[in-house]
Amino acid sequence: MDIETVKLSLIVERLAPELISFLTEHELSINIVLRDGLALLEPEDAMEIVQHSICQHQKEALLQ
């Protein structure tokens, strides 16, 4: 297992660049821990990570 921490922006830039305009600077700067590293990440995985990050950001905004 190759654990790697990367910014969400790196994942989006490499696997789903069309989504960059939909994400805030805060969302793009979120650290994501990848269990198997960036090399094994698929576009479907990137979409799931982006969706989860947006939901998490919205929860944080509601709690404040």
Ordered list of secondary-structure elements with their pairings:
Blueprint: E1 4-7, H1 8-15, H2 25-28, E2 31-34, H3 43-63
Helix pairs in contact: 1-3
Task: Tell me what the structure shows.
By secondary structure, the protein is of the alpha+beta class. The chain is built from three helices and two strands, in the order βααβα. The protein has helices at 8-15, 25-28, 43-63; strands at 4-7, 31-34. It has a two-stranded antiparallel sheet with strand order 1-2. Helix 1 packs antiparallel against helix 3 (43-63). The longest helix is centred in the C-terminal third of the chain and has 21 residues, at 43-63. The chain is globular, with a radius of gyration of 12 Å. The mean pLDDT is 88.
